[in-house]
Amino acid sequence: MAEEEDDPAFDEDFDDSGNGVESGHGKRKRLFSKELRCMMYGFGDDQNPYTESVDILEDLVIEFITEMTHKAMSIGRQGRVQVEDIVFLIRKDPRKFARVKDLLTMNEELKRARKAFDEANYGS
Fold first, then answer.
1. Residue 62 to residue 21: CA distance in whole angstroms
2. How far apart are CA 58 and CA 48, in angstroms?
3. Nearest-angstrom CA–CA distance, 111 and 58
4. How confident is the model at residue 27 (pLDDT cuts 50, 70, 90)?
5. CA atoms of 102 and 83, how far apart (whole Å)
6. How many angstroms separate the CA atoms of 32 and 85, rounded?
7. Where is the composition biased (Acidic residues) (predicted)?
8. I need a labelling partner for 94 at 20 to 30 A (CA). Which of 2, 58, 120, 123 fits?
9. pLDDT tens digit string along 58-92?
10. Which residues are paired to 27 by β-bridges?
11. What are the domain boundaries of the chain?
């Protein structure tokens, strides 16, 4: 057990980057591991990808989300993130822009369907 503490590879479990991803115990809290594993498998990786691969991908995802959030907070209404701010930031990336538009359209359709369902069942 003492050998484990002296092993430099043991230190890889700790986040020294200071980007706020770590929990109070020094070990990073993995927020998207399950979803990323499923996505990696869906895109052709092994059903059980290497933990290191998932960790690197998760670090990239969290970095992207953090940067986009900071940028979105700096435009529009200061200190608030709104959907329009995110759409504004990705407007020059056609693939992301198209995907966000699809998801927003789908969200609106779901809202209308839920409202129609509730009105039919509860008779507003």
1. 8
2. 15
3. 31
4. low
5. 13
6. 24
7. 1-16
8. 58
9. 999 999 999 999 999 998 888 789 999 999 999 99
10. 14
11. 29-77, 91-123
